[in-house]
Amino acid sequence: MDGKMKVAVMTDVMKMELTEREIPSPKKDEVLVKIEYVGVCGSDLHYFEAGGIGANMVEPPFVLGHEAGGVVVETGADVKDLKVGDKVALEPGKTCGKCEFCKTGRYNLCPDVIFFATPPIDGVFQEYVAHEAGLCFKIPDNMDTMEAALIEPLAVGFHAARQGNAHLGQAAVVTGAGCIGLVSMMAMKAMGVTKIIVVDVQQKRLEKALELGATDIINGKEQNTVEEVLRLTGGKGADLVIETAGTEITTRQAIQFAKKGSTIVLVGYSASGEMTLPMSLALDKELDFKTVFRYRHIYPVAIDAVASGKVNLKGIVTNEFPLDDIENAMVQSVKDKANIVKSVIKIC
Length: 348
Fold this sequence. Notes:
With 348 residues, the protein is of the alpha/beta class. It has two domains: 4-138 and 318-346, Quinone Oxidoreductase, Chain A, domain 1 (Alpha-Beta Complex), CATH 3.90.180.10; 157-291, 3-Layer(aba) Sandwich (Rossmann fold), CATH 3.40.50. 28% of the residues lie in helices and 28% in strands.
């Protein structure tokens, strides 16, 4: 397909501009996707606000965005499983397929992954993208491309729930009610967990958690989190904790209210990258710690959960912005975290 497309580029910290680039041509194993929705991820906001995450530093002009859904408009010569008009969710990471991690099925740990919006690889705040067909998952007719875009964060939630072996009969706690906390909660519900307590300090986020299926909420600013979890679990503590807030205080609390022999899944990144934790207590309780880096083999599962009605994925969205208003969308998402749980950008 010939022509130009709109692209939103980060030109500096807290600055975005619209420009034009050539529409890419798909390789023989790729499809060209007309992007309709892109979710705004916490990593996008970190890059936008701080100019980098750890060693990954943005060198403007840079394109953010990696949670994409759209429609196939052109297929490469070797593509057999997708056709023009198919609605797809794009898995954003292309791995090498040759390293020990890829060969053993843990491809999310591939050291040579090429991942949308991870410097120096541009993201998908743009009208079209050419992407490997095997990483474009067709969604059924009863789903739309906004939901397709949100499969990416939901995949993180399902990976966290799987890492914790979520199942019927557990009392679970999610610390942090941002997007990843909410999708982790919904993933656990889809996997059979019936009692899920959600902890946060923002009341609007806690109300959203209740709306989406939390059985109990705790406002950590106004209540004693450890005491409340113990009260709500009859003094037993949590069988499973998914920690998404990424703070030392919530991680310490998780160790304190976790039941002996239970599992804590660490998902949230701390600002400093380091924490001081009560490890003697963790040893006394013989806790299992699991961690999460993105996801693997999850997209079909996540799509099925949404299509079957087990997950109300659109429910996490609080704000929608057009591509032409991209800078304001990013600024508001950074500055108004008390009210904006999840923003999406309508590309076209």
